[in-house]
Amino acid sequence: SQQGEEDPQALSIQEGENATMNCSYKTSINNLQWYRQNSGRGLVHLILIRSNEREKHSGRLRVTLDTSKKSSSLLITASRAADTASYFCATDGNGGATNKLIFGTGTLLAVQP
Amino acid sequence: DGGITQSPKYLFRKEGQNVTLSCEQNLNHDAMYWYRQDPGQGLRLIYYSQIVNDFQKGDIAEGYSVSREKKESFPLTVTSAQKNPTAFYLCASGLTGRGSPLHFGNGTRLTVT
Questions:
Q1: Whole-angstrom distance, CA of residue B73 vs CA of residue A38
Q2: Which terminus of chain A, N or C, has less C-beta within 10 A?
Q3: Any chain A CB within 8 A of the CB of B59?
Q4: SS3 A81
């Protein structure tokens, strides 16, 4: 069953603007991850935030996590046309000892040059 | 270069035929996964394996079968029992720890007519 739900489903911005995507999930987690997928390609891991962390940065990416609201956000600053892709959050849910990631439905980001 | 390779990139089959999708990794990962992606949806887990000669069903295993005879290889067979086989199939590998990031192949797009 799907655990993560991204919002918005699609986002179109101009180059240089910031892009914010949100993810909500349903059960307790150990960590939450964000992935990027270019059209017709596999997913690429971007960043992982643990349940005891509130914010994490990696280059132009900033991720926040609010476990009380079961939500996360991904901020891409100073966007570029090359950032055009789909972005997915993934949680480890209640998979016990196994690594079963559950992916959301994704946000399609279009950055206009 | 270490990575995960899926072949072929595109596959066409007639209804009623079984088809096998290849997935090979040289990342020395113990865990491997098969996901299915349909338009506008996230990834759904078909099967996963944490060790050679062992695998478990995911959320949508019906109509699919796998084998894990070697650490590097995790082929997926889409059988004629799968009612809607046309989809984008993604293979991934990773460490076995809960919530470990996954490395994805570039997918196989299967079209069944």
A1: 25
A2: N
A3: yes
A4: helix
